[in-house]
Amino acid sequence: MLTSEPQWVALYTNPRAEKVAEKNLREKGYEAYLPLLRQLHSWSDRKKWVEVPMLKSYVFVKITGKDQTRITEVQGVSHIVKFGGGVAVIPEREIQMMKDFIASELSIQIRTMEQLKLGSRVRISSGSLEGKEGVLVGDCDEGNFAVEITGISMAMVVHVEQELLEVIDEEQPEEPVVKKKKYTIR
């Protein structure tokens, strides 16, 4: 539920309008965040590095309860994402975690939470992502680390060397069911 204090929420954008929506939100004075990944795209005559949205059709914005109706009038925005009958509020720490993972330049994969069967909770013990918590996912190589983005049922998966992970609880991981889609950040 939105309050009088600004909170991060997920907005669903019109198709392929994430960058337009973010630009228009910023022009209207809102604090907006569009996580972008750098990908190498190939055409028949050339290759080019392009920035693409990490989460297709999603942009994040910090709003108060009174902004809720006005925000959907911004060009490029389709609607506010709702979960369980209410607005999907994204904790500040998860927005910061997305920023930190993108800045780390690790390979990031995006999956829906339905594609992951959650395993052991782990924490990164050292390095630039020290203290970040998530779930150990054994889908490809050992050491894949997933972070759920609350409210939109999505997860970022990055490869972290196994020796940098420490188990938070003692539950045994289950075998995940996943679709692989890799993005490399450079």
- Please name the CATH architecture of the largest domain: Roll
The oligomeric status of these chains comes to single chain
CATH topology of the largest domain: SH3 type barrels
Q: Compute the number of strand runs.
A: 16
Mean pLDDT: 81
Stretches where pLDDT falls below 50 for ≥5 residues?
170-186
Q: Into how many domains do the coordinates divide?
A: 2
In what range is the share of β-strand residues?
35-45%
Helices, by number, come to 2
Largest sheet entry: 7 strands, antiparallel
How do the helices and strands follow one another from N- to C-terminus?
A: EHEEEEEEEEHEEEEEEE
Shape: globular
- Helix/strand-derived category reads mainly beta
Explain briefly what this protein structure is:
It is built from two helices and 16 strands.
Q: Care to describe what's here?
A:
With 186 residues, the chain is mainly beta. It has two domains: 7-90, NusG, N-terminal domain (Alpha-Beta Plaits, 2-Layer Sandwich), CATH 3.30.70; 94-183, SH3 type barrels (Roll). The protein has two helices and 16 strands. It has a seven-stranded antiparallel β-sheet with strand order 15-11-12-13-14-10-16, covered by helices on one side. It is globular and about 50 Å long. The termini are far apart.
